Amino acid sequence: MATNKKMEQEVVSKLENCLKELKIKSETKSNPDESIIFGKFALDKAKYRIVIHLQNEDYTPKTMDTGQLKLDDVAKQDCAQTPNLNFQASHSSSRSYSQDEGLKIKKKFLEEANKLLPKLKR
To answer: Where are the alpha helices (DSSP H) in 22-98?
Structure first.
């Protein structure tokens, strides 16, 4: 393990030196699991960014594979009651009024809109 870490540090150091030779300003951030080298430079009025991410291939992030998501009862209830598009589509035809009432509402709306239309044309 110590030799792996030493090797990683050597790789990071060599990459930093390569960027310095090319006159590219860079900075490095490291933690026990990974290292990131970030640099920027401009060439013929074009800007470039370099990002080098060094990480062990077998590394598993702490947020991965945590098992089944544990939700309390309130959160489960919220998830169960939150409508999605399928729910909305399946319940879209249900109305709180009859078809006749819907036609009356539509007719009244059109009458009021027609009364306002001449006023808007002025």
So the answer is: 73-81, 85-90
Which pair of tokens denotes residue 67? 């098992």
- pLDDT tens across 14-27, in order? 999 999 999 999 99
> Is 37 buried (19+), middle (13-18) or exposed (0-12) by CB count in 10 A?
buried
Q: Strand pairing of 25-31 and 46-55?
A: unpaired
* Residue found under tokens 């945590």: 66
Q: Which residue has the tokens 């951030």?
A: 29
- Partners of 93 in the beta sheet? none
- The pair of three-digit structure tokens given for residue 90, joined into one six-digit string: 């399946």
pLDDT at 16: 93
The candidate with the shortest Cα–Cα distance to 50, out of 59, 42, 40, 60, is: 40
pLDDT digits (tens, 9 = 90+) for 48-75: 999 998 887 776 666 655 565 566 665 5
Q: Which of 46, 48, 55, 44 is nearest to 19 (CA)?
A: 48
